[in-house]
Design a protein that fits this description.
The chain is mainly alpha-helical. It has 2 domains: 50 residues, no CATH class; 42 residues, no CATH class. Helices cover 55% and strands 4% of the residues. The chain has a two-stranded parallel sheet with strand order 1-2. Strand 1, helix 3 and strand 2 form a beta-alpha-beta unit. It starts with 13 loop residues before the first helix and ends with a helix.
């Protein structure tokens, strides 16, 4: 599943990080630079960063996909409280999408 490949690394290609940092936040720029160098999947939610990742033919996963995978793999017991916590930190999610993810997780 998705969780097998999650690993925290710091990119060594600082030129690429600086290039992306002109348009994106530092964390997103580092994630893009590293994923491009390694040709690995990337975890990202910002639409503009997703578009850039796809230009480089990277496989893109979202936080919502990761939460569903985490539940499926038994790392978390419920998606709903995790979504609620993310939303408290400023993670934006429409009510329709929230309800859809909760339904996909087979929760009420």
């Amino acid at each position: 599943m998705l969780l097998e490949w999650i690993e925290h690394q710091i990119p060594s290609n600082t030129d690429a990080v600086q290039h992306f940092h002109q348009r994106f936040g530092l964390g997103e720029s580092e994630a893009l630079a590293l994923a491009i160098k390694l040709q690995s999947p990337i975890l990202v939610d910002e639409v503009k960063v997703i578009q850039e990742a796809r230009k480089h033919r990277l496989k893109v996963f979202s936080t919502l996909q990761m939460l569903l995978a985490a539940k499926a793999e038994g790392f978390i017991s419920s998606v709903k409280p995790e979504l609620d916590e993310y939303m408290k930190t400023g993670f934006r999610l429409s009510e329709k999408l929230y309800n859809h993810v909760v339904a996909l997780a087979r929760e009420k």
